[in-house]
Each structure stands twice: as structure tokens, then as C-alpha cells.
Specification:
103 residues; five-stranded mixed β-sheet; globular
Length: 103
């Protein structure tokens, strides 16, 4: 697999450069999640980073490279545009009618 050294900005990973695997299109993933184990043995904290362009070329405006910027809310792709034909988002709401006791 091919990888690319990618810069991380903000959060605990600020200033680090890590090799990130590239997808079939040659781009790194749009969001990068890093699980950090809890010292007390609780559930791990997940750091979320979003991919942004590092710079653009002068003439054609092509992307020169990518960097990851810390997303403190950890939403990832929650605010992206959803198409009507895409799969519905998984949520923890109960199914059925709200007044129906059997669900």
C-alpha cells in the first residue's frame, strides 16, 4: 500500500508528521480518527482530524498536498451534505410510534 507523510495541526498531535495510507484515488481519508487509551482503564478518547489542503499551485490551483486539522467537537462527517439516496445515518433513537407501548 502507498502512504504519504502528512502534517497534523492542532490538538495533541500538533506539529507531528505521520505516514497515512492513501486510498484508491491517491488521497488520504477525509477524516482521521486516533483512539487514545484512558489511563484509568475507561473507554478510549477518540481524537478526530479533518483533511484540508496544504496549499495550491499558482497557475492551475491544484492541491499541493494535504494536512489534518484537529476537530475539537469530534463531529467528523456529521455536518457534511447528505444525499437522499445515501444510506440513512445510524442513531440511537427507538423505532416505531412514540405513543405505541410495544414500540
Amino acid at each position: 500500500m502507498k502512504s504519504q507523510d502528512t502534517l497534523f495541526e492542532g490538538g495533541p498531535m500538533d506539529g507531528r508528521v505521520l505516514p497515512v495510507l492513501l486510498g484508491p484515488t491517491g488521497h488520504p481519508p477525509k477524516t482521521y480518527r486516533i483512539p487514545v487509551p484512558d489511563a484509568a482503564g475507561g473507554p478510549p478518547t477518540v481524537l478526530v482530524y479533518r483533511r484540508t489542503p496544504r496549499g495550491h499551485t499558482r497557475r492551475l490551483g491544484l492541491v499541493r498536498g494535504w494536512k489534518y486539522v484537529h476537530d475539537p467537537e469530534g463531529l467528523g462527517d456529521a455536518d457534511r451534505l447528505r444525499w437522499p439516496w445515501s444510506r440513512p445515518r445510524r442513531d440511537n433513537t427507538p423505532h416505531g410510534k412514540p405513543d405505541d407501548p410495544t414500540g
